[in-house]
Amino acid sequence: MTLPLNMENTGPWMRADGAPDGDVVVSSRVRLARNLAQHAFPHVANDTALRAVRQAVSDAAERSKMLKNAHVIQIEKLSDIEKQVLVERHLINQRLIESKLGSVIVERDEALSVMVNEEDHLRIQAMEPGLAMIDTWRVVDSLDNDLEATLDYAFRPDIGYCTACPTNVGTGMRASVLVHLPGLVETKQIDKVLKAVSHLGLAVRGFYGEGTEPMSNFFQISNQITLSRGEEEIVDNIEKITRQIASKEREARKWMYSEDHLHVEDTIFRAWGILRHARLLSSKEAMSHVSALRLAVYYKLIHDITTQMLNELFVLIQPAHLCVSSGKDLQAEERDVARAELIRTRLRMKTA
Predict the structure, then answer these.
(1) Cα separation of 116 and 53, whole Å?
(2) Residue 114: what are its φ and ψ, rounded to 5°?
(3) Average pLDDT in the 290-318 region?
(4) Of 240, 232, 226, 143, nearest to 197 (Cα)?
């Protein structure tokens, strides 16, 4: 494998133990879209221009103190499985895979990354565990300033940063939280909450962001408005709304347990038993059971597992990760076998 990543673990953004509101909020992410002046946007640029942009960003990264230990990964040099590993680790998206002459610059702990020649020339990203929007924004803002010291961004005083998609014009910011809302789903309040969120100018997406469906009660909530609002105002608004959602989720969990604790416990311990003993597990089934165990941690029903351990499993049991771990391209049933074995092994390691 040519990916310079630690495949045994995920980045610190998934390690929510002790993180603010980590029982509900898995992670916070802030991404900034930036383009270089005097260069066409990636979707209309020729190969010569794309190579020039990639080289300019790579040179800027080498001079950046925040990226001094980063890896520069050229997408076209990766296998299809390796590309999907980066998607599963939330370091790139499907659009970058499909772009020409794209790359990603990844800081060693994966908390900072820069996609190059995606929809925009740069997508600068920072991720932190739990609800930490302000801190995450400050990190990505520092990196943005660091890179801007040697890169000439396309910027207009009247509208802000120029972007390929008009919805990103202004701050160019997409700030999001990844939240786990089984209580609101189970009590059938989720549609009402998500509708209210959309009325407040936020978008709700799936586990892997735009264009994906919610999975195992996980949702991404992000801003839709980038123009006429400051960056700090945007992240502060998302943090406040997310705190309200987390409060509603905890109320739902409390009600669930008080109304029918046997049903809740049965669901959790069935999931615990299946994960410890199953020989075949599809991705959908495994995600559902691991989601149930996050509730076990919340209710303090199983003391041998942690939120961090379960968050990491959500990434490590994905198809591309299983193929890389096995050293070969696995068919669907082979992945189901490998997934079940990985989960059994990890659970034994933690409960030994």
Answers:
(1) 8
(2) -135, 115
(3) 93
(4) 240
